Amino acid sequence: MKAILRAQDLGKRYGRRWALRECAVDIPAGHVVGLVGPNGAGKTTLLKLAGGQLTPTSGRITVLGEEPAAGPAQLAKVGFVAQDTPVYAGLSVAEHLRLGARLNPGWNAVLARERIERLGLDPAHRAGKLSGGQRAQLALTLGLAKQPELLILDEPVAALDPLARREFLQGLMEAVAEQELSVVLSSHLIADLERACDYLVVLVDSRVRLAGPVDRLLATHRRLSGPRRDPGRLPGDQHVVSASHTDRQSTLVVRTEGPILDPAWTVSELTLEDLVLAYMEKPAGRPVALEVQR
């Protein structure tokens, strides 16, 4: 399957500080990908490298089979909406659309106009007078009307209220269905990822700890609770992701392809938030990456 984003030993350094180091990931096309991780994990740096705003210090990254920003044709294939949903406060909605048409050769003026009408945005209103949710929708409209093959969204709803977040994500999912584009969405809000994403990448300390289709990841992870025991004594097909213990009880999150046959364990399924937290809590210095395909 075609990869929309492939990174190999990717690193970015600012002076002596590495913002991203030894990052490796291979994301297939046709998904809405949730990129999640703690602050400082390197999510924004990875997305800016993918968008061509930054150049790598080490390693290599390709987007849609080419180096980011390799030329006008490559730039036209990728849309990018940054964390602060950038729009120009002094420009009207209509002026934003005209600017988008001038800058993007594949611009779909009908899509942009119809989406603005559907959102109820007055073309004459300046962006600086719009609400946060409206500015986010305008930025999304600019990204979609470009008609990219890949749309990159870096924390686009972080500052929005719950209703505005829901409306933004609903509009995104409608566009994905209509335009058949791939999306990489960075967010701290697991509920938003559950609502929108069918593929997950967990980035911790610059390294990909987990990557794969959401339904497959949830199907291959379980929480085990039972009498205290050494996790190292579990069967070889049960990989321990995280473990906590009291004097008498152990609680483990494990990855396994098979059934849990030990009757001493109480077995429960994980939510997406449980899964993400289990991998985010993994101690630094243990770069165990898991990539699960269908």
From TrEMBL:
UniProt keyword annotations, A-Z: ATP-binding, Nucleotide-binding, Transport
Region annotated Disordered, chain positions: 222-249
Species this chain originates from: Nonomuraea typhae
Lineage, uppermost ranks: Bacteria, Bacillati, Actinomycetota, Actinomycetes, Streptosporangiales
Ligase recorded as keyword: no
Residue ranges occupied by any ABC transporter domain in the UniProt entry: 5-230
One Pfam short name: ABC_tran
Protein name (database record): ABC transporter ATP-binding protein
Keyword ATP-binding carried by entry: yes
PANTHER family (alphabetical): ABC TRANSPORTER ATP-BINDING PROTEIN ALBC-RELATED
Domain of life, source organism: Bacteria
InterPro entries per record: AAA+_ATPase (IPR003593), ABC_transporter-like_ATP-bd (IPR003439), ABC_Transporter_VariousFunc (IPR051782), P-loop_NTPase (IPR027417)
Transmembrane intervals: none
One GO MF term: ATP binding
